[in-house]
Amino acid sequence: MIPKNRREKLLSQFDEGALVIISTNPEQYRNGDVHFPFRPHSDFWYLTGFKEPEAVAVFSKDYYTIFLQEKNLEREIWDGERLGVAKAAQTLNANQAYPTNKLKVQLPQLIKEATTLYYDFKPCALDDEIIQCLDGVKTQSLGEHLHEMRLIKDDSEIALMQKAADISVHAHQLAMQQVKADLFEYEIASIFDAEFRKNNTEHAYTPIVAGGGNGCILHYIKNDQVLNNGDLLLIDAGCEVGGYASDITRTFPVNGKFSKAQRQIYQIVLDAQLAAIACIKPGEIVTKAHQVASQIIQQGLIDLGILQTDGYLSQFYMHGTGHWLGLDVHDVGSYRQGKQHRQYEIGMVTTVEPGIYIRKSDKINSIYWDIGIRIEDDVLVTDNGNSVLTKALVKEINDIENLMK
Ligand code: GLY
Ligand code: MN
Ligand code: MN
């Protein structure tokens, strides 16, 4: 669906007098005069398709006005070409376009004509300007409605997600084939940097490349340690295409051969992941995958004597089994409908990512110390169950060992 149709679909849920205001992300300084690479706000990108900073979209059933940066020869010499006001209305399918610095003077009139304003307060400077103009106009959350739309992906969005998945799968395959003892985590991370850039894509999130015990640090991003013979390597990395993320984790032995203890723990995680993926289908409750995965992991750890029957599973498995995936890696959309947990519907995309993380402890046999394993795939809900977008990437023990030979 193109942005125009998305705006129309959104507005079709609202009264005649509804007005939507949405701004993109601000630019962020990294240091001195240096910016982080700009990424539009996902909601704004979804509704406008516009990727420049400093933009605000205002639309109702009758009109669409885009406010954007003016052309500025000097700034464009430094930062690159801007669309500019003159071409914006036609390019972006809007009725009118104005420079962003005209928003403040136009806001009172725009808001005055509305009965309900759909806007998400952030906070930011625009919030204050809007509040000053409200004068009795009701406000409602935009995200509540918009995020329900974003939760269900159409064919064009799924195609982008499949492309992101394919590029990420290939990068993970290269990492499995190229890893060896004494390389550093950042050398393996550079495989992902290169593959993603070669395909004109970007990381959807900061990658985790974690050897040995670092795999037990859930948000390990330093990626600067040496990889030791006999250790596992956990890699959580994915690119985004057209803004749509992939999110993949694989865990494999640095030397290409799982030890007995690694194999035991890995097989529990894999069994949990496969059982959880089987729960992803239309009509199934979204909490089921986590229940099923947790139960398998709990029993597996008890059988190995790692977890006591009255012990806490959260000591070894302390995160959820998945999250929505889309324009944001932890994508928008509620996990509930009213007071109930919601059910999967066709077009939703979720990750499935159980794990086991065993830190050093006198209470645990040392053969299991520093084993951190997560297996993560991206799963689309389809009419006959699900389709794993990342299924091309091996995860059975034998398949991993064969690929690494
Ligand atoms: N890569 C982020 C996550 O798995 O949630
Ligand atoms: Mn994830
Ligand atoms: Mn991940």
UniProtKB/TrEMBL annotation:
The lineage of its organism: Bacteria, Pseudomonadati, Pseudomonadota, Gammaproteobacteria, sulfur-oxidizing symbionts. The keyword Manganese applies. This is Xaa-Pro aminopeptidase. Pfam families: AMP_N (PF05195), Peptidase_M24 (PF00557). CDD domains: Prolidase. Its EC number is 3.4.11.9. PANTHER family: XAA-PRO AMINOPEPTIDASE 3. GO terms for molecular function: manganese ion binding; metalloaminopeptidase activity. Coiled coil: none annotated. It comes from Bathymodiolus azoricus thioautotrophic gill symbiont. GO terms for biological process: proteolysis. Its cofactor is Mn(2+). It catalyses: Release of any N-terminal amino acid, including proline, that is linked to proline, even from a dipeptide or tripeptide. It is an enzyme of class 3 (hydrolase). Keywords: Aminopeptidase, Hydrolase, Manganese, Metal-binding, Metalloprotease, Protease. Residues 2-127 form the Aminopeptidase P N-terminal domain. Belongs to the peptidase M24B family.
